[in-house]
Design brief:
Structural class of chain B: mainly alpha
Number of helices of chain B: 16
CATH topology of chain A: MetI-like fold
Helix content of chain B: over 70%
Shape of chain A: flat
Oligomer: heterodimer
Helix content of chain A: over 70%
Distance between the termini of chain B: 8 Å
Distance between the termini of chain A: 34 Å
Number of domains of chain A: 1
Largest interface: A-B, 55 and 61 residues
Number of helices of chain A: 13
Order of helices and strands of chain B: HHHHHHHHHHHHHHHH
Order of helices and strands of chain A: HHHHHHHHHHHHH
Mean pLDDT of chain A: 86
Number of strands of chain B: 0
CATH superfamily of chain A: MetI-like
Strand content of chain B: under 5%
């Protein structure tokens, strides 16, 4: 038992990523148990649904970003090397154009398109709406994956590694997809995916909050799947967050926050704590794999 | 000399980049003009058609939509006729409510009311808001450029001083306490040290939570205790919140770390350049130099490490600009103050005034493009210096 504890403590000391992943799980479990004990059942269900939708959306956004980024980077690479400038330049131009669109503006445009569709009876299911917004986030974040893949290919092309494999008769697509990206860059891709997961959660919560605060007249909020951001924008959650300010002036009020204002406080805590942990997990991966 | 610098600065690469920027501005302008001319008119027609439908429903005989019961009946009827389109039915009911409210509140329906969409008066108001948005943006960009470098250099110096995290130290102390208890000793000293470390970790954690918190959480936390309306509050919030400062400071920190591992640093140290990272000692780092606007560490290896890291950091400012705009939009929308550009954008989307929304979005796009052009010119100028082209 002591040996196991010592091993765990050694791993936790050496691996920042695993340490922060453990903190994250621990924090989530603590909030979950606390909410189960002290939050009213209706709000508890809402919080659970919000967590699920947010993480599902963020996961889907990362998957979309990986798919689009990988595909886009390879398309650009083969068009450039195949001397197909006629197709290469317009695609590169569009990629650079997307780069200049602030993410939140891109998401607002995505939301406008979604609300049009919903008005006309398209995309009525909650999963479909979450996936659509995840695809928009994925498109906006895919440029980072594209840059990373282009950078990794350029790095290996500079060394003899690439040419040696070509001399061995290996196909260029196999060298890039399997040898460079899958076998030699998986740690880089995992690190980027973790950072993008954090970015996606932030963007999803922000757009959820903005839509719920300012744009709820057009399409009913009940039509949209609840996320941590939209739950935070609800009147009772906002009151709970306002109470945090009161507690700053009157510290004796702090104890009330964890019982009377639990919905807003736990949602805000989940968002901030998740972002903090994901940042540290990503940072830990850099140190662990010397990225 | 000046001519030499300017001609060398406009290298073919920069010329190509500037051409790309101008082409994308022209392309987006053309798209916006087409959208304004075609798309918005179509949307207006659709809206009028939808209004006709809603108007027809509001004029249904024997149906009083002011009565909640009759409204529910209409809603149930819609559900019976269109059972698979519940969301659309919901939207129609909401549109009916909005339409009825609009009849009493919209300026357009009042005598002498201003027409909807783009007008000279509206555009002049918008220009004022746009200028104030650009002013805040530039201010935040300058302040965060300083803050990112200071924060990153501070972290880098702490790393060089081999200071490990408070939490890790507390964890080690905790194991010492466990060991001592197992041996039957009283770990009073270790327990005290552990408590102090946990307290320090909590303080640091509090600061980190603020740095990672999305702006709207901070805004709502402080709304009841502080005046959140002045632009100074907005600038501070834009710099510290949304994880921008911490993420970009970390980026700068990784550049510093990568640079410090290069061979020239060790060579410089061997040749006698100062390389101690202790605060305010002979041959160390002066805290004043770190806090100065122009970071300057004379006769210290950090000077070269910093200069090279700064050079690599310049292109990331383009990405930073895009993130910063997102942060500012979130802050302005969350603050919900009338007279701010992004509040107007939100209102325009809400009331389907898409011409105005498009103009604002185009304005924001121009700010990002302007920043990208400036950053590219700046980077080309720095590159010219590095490649001895000046």
């Amino acid at each position: 038992m002591t040996a196991v504890m010592t091993d765990i403590s050694r791993i936790l000391q050496q691996r920042k990523d695993i340490r922060w992943l453990s903190f994250w799980f621990l924090g989530m479990i603590v909030v979950w148990i606390w909410d189960a004990l002290f939050l009213d059942p209706l709000s508890y269900e809402l919080v659970q649904a919000a967590i699920f939708n947010t993480f599902f959306g963020a996961g889907a956004a990362v998957a979309a970003a990986l798919g689009l980024g990988w595909g886009g980077a390879l398309l650009l690479y083969f068009l450039e090397n195949g001397k197909k400038r006629f197709f290469y330049l317009p695609i590169l131009f569009m990629v650079n154009l997307i780069r200049s669109v602030p993410q939140i503006i891109g998401l607002l445009i995505g939301y406008i398109i979604l609300s049009f569709w919903m008005d006309y009876g398209v995309l009525q299911s909650a999963a479909g709406q979450t996936l659509w917004m995840a695809c928009v986030i994925g498109l906006l974040c895919s440029l980072e994956i594209m840059d990373l893949i282009a950078e990794r290919i350029a790095y290996y092309k500079k060394s003899d590694y690439f040419h040696a494999m070509q001399c061995c008769g290996m196909k260029e697509s196999r060298i890039i997809n399997v040898e460079i990206l899958w076998k030699s860059s998986s740690a880089h891709l995992v690190h980027k995916s973790v950072s993008l997961f954090g970015d996606s959660i932030f963007l999803q919560c922000s757009i959820g909050f903005i839509i719920s605060v300012g744009l709820s007249n057009d399409v009913s909020l009940t039509n949209f799947p609840v996320t941590l951001g939209s739950l935070l924008a609800k009147l009772d959650s906002k009151q709970d967050i306002l109470a945090v300010g009161s507690a700053l002036l009157d510290p004796s009020y702090i104890s009330h926050l964890f019982f009377q204002h639990l919905q807003g406080v736990s949602v805000a805590a989940l968002i901030v704590f998740t972002l903090l942990c994901i940042y540290h997990i990503a940072d830990g991966l850099i140190h662990s794999y010397d990225l | 000399m000046r001519r030499t610098i300017s001609s060398s600065m406009f290298s073919p690469l920069l010329r190509k980049k500037l051409f790309d920027h101008l082409a994308s501005i022209l392309f987006v302008s053309a798209v916006f003009i087409v959208l304004l001319a075609v798309g918005v008119n179509r949307e207006k027609n659709d809206r009028e058609k939808r209004h006709e439908l809603i108007e027809m429903m509001t004029k249904l005989q024997n149906v009083n939509l002011g009565s909640p019961m009759q409204k529910s009946l209409l809603r149930e009827t819609l559900d019976v006729f269109y059972p698979s389109e519940k969301a659309r039915n919901d939207s129609i009911m909401q549109s009916i409510d909005a339409y009825r409210t609009e009849q009493y509140t919209n300026k357009v329906y009042k005598t002498g009311g201003a027409p909807e969409g783009l007008s000279w008066l509206g555009t002049a108001d918008l220009a004022g808001m746009y200028l104030s948005f650009v002013f805040v943006y530039v201010l935040v960009l300058i302040v965060s450029y300083y803050a990112v470098q200071t924060f990153a250099l501070f972290s880098f110096i702490q790393y060089k001083q081999q200071k490990s995290s408070y939490l890790l130290c507390a964890f080690r102390q905790f194991w010492l306490i466990v060991e001592k208890i197992r041996r039957g000793d009283i770990p009073a000293k270790e327990a005290g040290r552990c408590a102090v470390l946990v307290l320090q970790a909590c303080c640091r954690g509090g600061v980190l939570l603020v740095l990672f918190a999305p702006a709207y959480i901070i805004i709502y936390s402080l709304k009841s205790t502080a005046d959140t309306e002045p632009w100074v509050f907005m600038v501070v919030l834009a710099v510290v919140s949304n994880g921008l400062l911490i993420n970009y400071a970390h980026k700068f920190y990784t550049f510093l770390l990568a640079e410090s591992r290069k061979g020239y640093v060790e060579t410089a140290a061997v040749k006698g350049l100062n390389h101690s990272y202790e605060w305010n000692v002979q041959g160390g780092i002066a805290l004043r130099s770190l806090l100065h606007w122009k970071k300057y560490f004379p006769l210290h290896v950090l000077q070269q490490v910093y200069s090279n890291a700064r050079y690599q950091y310049i292109p990331t400012m383009k990405q930073y600009a895009s993130f910063l705009i997102s942060g500012l939009v979130i802050i302005e929308m969350a603050l919900n103050i009338q007279g701010h550009l992004c509040y107007e954008l939100l209102q325009d989307i809400l009331f389907e005034r898409y011409e105005m929304a498009l103009v604002i979005m185009f304005g924001i796009f121009l700010v990002v493009k302007g920043t990208e052009i400036i950053v590219d010119c700046w980077f080309a100028r720095e590159s010219a210096k590095y490649e001895n082209r000046t």
